[in-house]
Amino acid sequence: MPEPKLRKLVTIVEDVFHEGGPVRDTPLKRGAVLAVIENPFAGRYEADIAGFMTDLEPLGLDMARRLIDALGGEAGAIEGYGKGAIVGQGGELEHGALWHVPGGYAMRGALGEAKAIVPSTKKVGGPGTRLDVPVTHINASYVRSHFDAMEVGVADAPRANELVLALVMTTGARIHARIGGLKAEDVKGEDGLR
Amino acid sequence: MKARIRKLTVFVEETRREMDRPVDPPTRKAAAVAVIRNPFAGRYVEDLSELIETAAILHPALGKPLREAVDKGAALVPSSKKRGGPGQVLDIPLGHKDAAYVRSHFDGMEVWLNDSPRADEIMVAVAVTDSGRPLPRIGGLTVSEVQGKDGLR
Prior knowledge:
Chain A has helices at 52-70, 93-97, 100-111; strands spanning 6-16, 28-38, 80-87, 120-124, 131-137, 148-152, 162-170. Chain A is α+β, with helices and mostly antiparallel strands. The longest helix of chain A has 19 residues, at 52-70. Chain B has two helices and five strands, in the order ββααβββ. In chain B, the strands form two sheets. In chain B, strands 1-2-5 form a three-stranded antiparallel sheet, with no helix packed on it. Chain B has a two-stranded antiparallel ribbon with strand order 3-4. The longest helix of chain B has 12 residues, at 59-70. Strand 1 of chain A pairs antiparallel with strand 1 of chain B, so a sheet runs across the interface.
């Protein structure tokens, strides 16, 4: 399989200070890195596609490191994560699914011991399609304060023969989290769930 | 009154290929968007000076710090504005910072925040680039020909 052909990288960082409640001195940060790459399988049915997952690993790791840098440079500050893909109209949903394994590999490669599954979403769409990337705690999926999401998209992507690959990280709970449930400080961190 | 920022978002776009050709060095565009309270929402207010002084959003107040940040900036900062609800897309016009007629730098950047602006908020944005469009080739005034005196050429 060929090396991914990268057209564009987009970085988005949100600093959230409040949402109508107490204003925080240290904002919650949500960040995303999006890579727009050529879909090598666009326009036809290709039976054997799984090898491309390995080809995506170096790109994924580069994206994860960029994202940590954009969020302040400290891997230890990252508390939530998620991933997603948008497939241009010449491709199929299965091409987006190729991102599951290398996206998770990238998160763990850059963050170290992250126990929880990386929540994900994907869809087929045209340029400007928005994707709501789900976010949960990196070590325990049930941490309720960290259930979050970030909307991402690129105005001119994906074109028909492209894929938009996304990684999202956050530095903490929702800005005014107060609905109970498992707390981050109570995480056992053994099974990735609690 | 200090401008009370609810949210600050930075977008950076780096283009490495276009039409299957390398863009080397990559072109880069960036935008920063702040979401602040609109102190005048919901009623007619005659005197808007509070916002001009404190939030630095209207044209003269925003242009000065932007010019200081980009070193020189002889050209008019092109701008656009609109009313809209959460998720509203804004296209920020872009031109060369020292000479508005540099054709390779006629560009634009789209920004949006899914949760902004709410009814009592204003989104303010600035965008900068370190390059023109990817693969520019429609002629006109080039960067190397800029005199940079009048902001136009």
